[in-house]
Amino acid sequence: MIPLLRHIFRTGILTEPTPLPEGGPQREIDRLHDEILHILGRALTIREVDAGSCNGCELEIQALNNPYYNLEGRGIKFVASPRHADMLLVTGPVTKNMENALRIAYDCTPDPKLVVAVGDCGCNGGVFGESYASCGGVENVVGVDLRIPGCPPTPLALMQGILAAVRSRE
Amino acid sequence: MIFHAEPIEFARQPGSGAPVWSGRAADGEDLLRFAISVHRHQGRLAALWGSDDRPSHGVYRLHCVFALDEGWLQLGLDLAASGDQCPVYPDLSGIFPAANRMQRATRDLVGITTDGSDHRPWLRHGAWPADWYPLRHDAVHQAGMGAGFENLPSDYDFVQVGGEGAHEIPVGPIHAGIIEPGHFRFSVIGERVLRLEQRLGYLHKGVEKLFVGADVPQGARLVGRVSGDSTCAYAWAYAEAVEAACRIEAPPRALMLRALMLERERVANHLGDLGAIGNDAAFAFGLTQFMRLKEAWLRLNHQVFGHRFMMDRIMPGGVAMDIEAAALAAIVEQCGVIGSEVKRLRTLYDAHAGLQDRFATTGAIDATLAQELSLTGLAARCTGILLDGRAHRQGYTPPAPYAKLGVRPVTDERGDVAARVAVRFDEIFESLRLLREMAVGMPSGDTRFEIAPIGGASGLGVIEGWRGEVLVGVQFGEDGKLARVHPHDPSWQIWPALEHAVMKDIVPDFPLINKSFNLSYSGADL
């Protein structure tokens, strides 16, 4: 146990300041962050749904919980059930074989809910487009509040997007 | 050249890539005999796919890739088109069980089938009719929301387990985490797993259809998105196949830069997996520590290559960017830092009794099963099979630039989660050593040559990715556009091994065992 604690102590705190939304000053984001938590009862819960992605977006979403971005430390948490979620974070393209599962997850998420489409494929189908096997972007299957483009979007872009989505509902 | 005294003549593929031979079976009997012979000589089935070559040759074609000690043999079998009937070829799953899912996927996509008994669809769930085959050249491919078919709910014929107290646990397709979708059907008594059956295909997004008619750069962009965690391996395998077909070789500097990226991809994934495996054994400290190392690793990728996962950096003909001496120095320096951090974390992992208790003997498979299932890559090496496309072995010379680097492959005979953790640690250290050598010995010169597609040509690329061997088969049409591209993920072979690995364990061990393999859904669903 002692070597373990020593390692934790030696690593220190790596968490970086909350990123600036594009163009906004740092103070604004801090105020916004406080407001989000106030509106949402001091926490935001997210259910991530991979509806057809190549796994690239998932790697970056997983990175949000690493010590550098520390999303959970800011009160934003990934949950296992859509019934516990305020927000669906959906990567795409939505495959035909996932279309039904995504609809069910959407219906299970309590209102008022936010849907964020992640990645170029989630936004508009990306390189996969629409075909016999792909419905294209997330908005072709369920209503979308915000899109975060990128292939894949960086963790910073994901954080900015998640914060902006919450503000859009205000 | 002939193999095992079978009457099939093989020709060596030109170029400096993996040793590949291609040949043609005269008929189904010929193919079956050859497959039996490969199996008898401890060979593997590396990939199987079909193509509709009616426009150019008037036939359908089955493509099998067998792996022997010397390299890979691509064997084609022509199947005559006969009206509305699906052409039939001999079922190989009795010889190589790994053939089962690939054969079913081939039937779903191309409409050629076997004389075997398992005709359950694999990639086709309910989105298109059973008598419509997306990869046939006359399949109408409308723009807009698909081909105009109704997306019908489908039932799947799972194998039922009966008896007193036996019940089923269905899991997925959406899983409780930030991971890819698939369905697992457990048959259990109490906590004990009696049987696991997987149903995949949820991520089928029609990748292979999109290659048809694309040009070489469009194909490169697409192949880099078959499985995002292995983008470098896919891009390189595709580049190798295109270069072999076009009779050109990438310059030495480009080859070394590709290997540099491939090893960085391997380290990034192993770091992430070691953390996630620790986390699934309730050791959150491990996840936090390894995720911070992975983040530092990806940030240097971004700085040096302009992309955290190095997507679209490997292109047919070479690489899309060059790298400066200062960047190479930064890579060498980071290898030192990460190396000593990982060494310290390994000591903590090894000394943690609770962790080792979860790892040891959990999810074990042995070398006999691995051989039977044609396993490759990390999963095979963790049963003690010395199989690494980057390393020399009896009768096999790895492709450039690995031939000169002298890769020391890592194996572990235990076959359990502990083995898959240990091999990942050792492979990180070996990759760090290779990265330092590459950075020091980086050749100078060009980074890219022009590609001129040759009408009707074809090639096969094989790259040892972090999971195992990634294969990409490429066929050009007479117009110089891509006529057929088939990317093959090692997960095709390893998924069935997971069904065996959980049988001796209990349900709560499944996430740990699954993570210790960390297989691709997207790569195998296409």
Provide a descriptive summary of the structure in words.
In chain A, strand 4 (114-118), helix 5 and strand 5 (146-148) form a beta-alpha-beta unit. The relative contact order of chain A is 0.18. Chain A has 170 residues and is of the alpha/beta class. Chain A has helices spanning 2-11, 26-39, 56-63, 96-108, 119-124, 155-168, and strands at residues 44-50, 76-78, 87-91, 114-118, 146-148. Chain B is globular, with a radius of gyration of 23 Å. The two termini of chain B are 34 Å apart. In chain B, helix 7 (252-280) packs antiparallel against helix 8 (284-305), helix 8 (284-305) runs antiparallel to helix 9 (325-351) and helix 9 (325-351) packs antiparallel against helix 14. Chain B has helices spanning 28-40, 54-57, 99-110, 207-211, 216-223, 231-245, 252-280, 284-305, 325-351, 353-359, 367-372, 377-381, 402-405, 417-440, 491-501, 510-517, 522-525; strands at residues 11-12, 20-25, 44-53, 59-67, 72-80, 88-89, 113-114, 166-171, 183-189, 192-199, 314-315, 318-319, 458-464, 469-476, 482-488. At the A-B interface, helix 1, strand 1, helix 3 and helix 4 of A face helix 4, helix 8 and helix 9 of B.
Write the layout of secondary structure elements.
The complex is a heterodimer of chains A (170) and B (526).
Chain A: H1 2-11, H2 26-39, E1 44-50, H3 56-63, E2 76-78, E3 87-91, H4 96-108, E4 114-118, H5 119-124, E5 146-148, H6 155-168
Parallel strand pairs in A: 1-2, 1-3, 3-4, 4-5
Chain B: E1 11-12, E2 20-25, H1 28-40, E3 44-53, H2 54-57, E4 59-67, E5 72-80, E6 88-89, H3 99-110, E7 113-114, E8 166-171, E9 183-189, E10 192-199, H4 207-211, H5 216-223, H6 231-245, H7 252-280, H8 284-305, E11 314-315, E12 318-319, H9 325-351, H10 353-359, H11 367-372, H12 377-381, H13 402-405, H14 417-440, E13 458-464, E14 469-476, E15 482-488, H15 491-501, H16 510-517, H17 522-525
